[in-house]
Amino acid sequence: MSHDETPAPTRALGRAIMRGFIGRCPACGQGPVIRGYISPVAACSACGEALARYQTADFAPYIVTFFIGLVFTPLTFVLSLDEALGDWALYLTVGAALLTAILLLPRTKGAAIGLLWALDIPNT
Ligand SMILES: [Zn+2]
CB neighbours of 71 closer than 8 A, spacing ≥ 6? Predict the structure, then answer.
């Protein structure tokens, strides 16, 4: 056995998803996985892992939309039943939903890249 061979990184699913969620490379946890707001990097700047192979397409927006709908639709419905609350409650809820979506989207994109990396499902 040669000492020059680097063992393949273990692809633990939960760890890779969490590293992606916090914006880090799913392989090493050091380099960024996203540049700008939501653009995935081609390769990790720390370990060189080729991340461009894992394209998530619209998976992250679907997850965010599902989560926002799951949380804020019942909340909006319940708040609309209380006539004592003014329109401000609806505006506040919609604003909170938008803010949550904006904050979740890049994190979910990173998590999706981590998921594809852990399952080793390249797009090319
Ligand atoms: Zn890396």
Answer: 97, 100
